[in-house]
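2024-03-11 09:14:02 INFO worker-7 job=invfold-0412 stage=load source=structure_tokens
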């Protein structure tokens, strides 16, 4: 909290200093005017001459103070503009860094999701192969069961096992397909967010 208040305190001090200087200059001019009026009213040429010289000196002093104040004001304004420009540069650099960090995060998440999709696709392919093998084995067992009814009990057991394996393989394929759909949906959301961030960064 100390750093934001420091420039404000400095500017407040500058304003008080400028107000004091301008007040002094005005007072000098008023004093000069009063002295000249008093000298003229006295009717003494010597006093008028002396007061006029003093008024000139007071006017010069007031002019000097005013000039110094104008120079100081311009210098302070230039310093304030430089500080504002620096602050804007820092804000711009911070926003650019934040946008870059967000873009990097989005790219990393997209890469992770794409890797997950590839892994799920490989697992799905393997599961489909196992399901096809189980189906072929089930069909073979069914044919053997039809050809050897006398071995019905043993063949029926093998057939039930083959059917169970085939059913398990089908369930696993369905589960993998659901997981793949979820990951693809997440990838689409992340990709959209990254594209929007890139578009905002380019517009900024």
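2024-03-11 09:14:09 INFO worker-7 stage=emit residues=204
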């Amino acid at each position: 909290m100390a750093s934001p208040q420091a420039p404000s305190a400095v500017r407040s001090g500058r304003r008080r200093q400028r107000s004091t200087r301008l007040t002094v200059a005005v007072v000098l001019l008023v004093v000069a005017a009063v002295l000249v009026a008093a000298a003229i009213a006295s009717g003494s040429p010597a006093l008028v001459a002396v007061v006029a010289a003093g008024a000139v000196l007071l006017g010069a002093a007031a002019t000097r103070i005013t000039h110094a104040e104008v120079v100081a004001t311009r210098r302070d304004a230039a310093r304030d503009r430089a500080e504002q420009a620096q602050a804007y540069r820092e804000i711009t650099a911070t926003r650019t860094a934040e946008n870059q960090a967000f873009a990097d995060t989005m790219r990393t998440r997209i890469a992770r999701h794409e890797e997950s999709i590839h892994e799920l696709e490989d697992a799905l392919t393997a599961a489909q192969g196992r399901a096809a093998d189980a189906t072929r084995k089930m069909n073979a067992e069914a044919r053997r069961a039809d050809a050897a009814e006398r071995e019905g009990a043993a063949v029926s057991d093998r057939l039930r096992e083959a059917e169970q394996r085939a059913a398990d393989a089908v369930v696993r394929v369905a589960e993998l397909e659901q997981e793949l759909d979820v990951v693809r949906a997440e990838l689409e959301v992340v990709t959209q967010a990254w594209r929007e961030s890139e578009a905002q960064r380019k517009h900024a």
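2024-03-11 09:14:09 INFO worker-7 stage=report msg="Residues 1-6 have pLDDT under 50 and may be disordered."
2024-03-11 09:14:10 INFO worker-7 job finished
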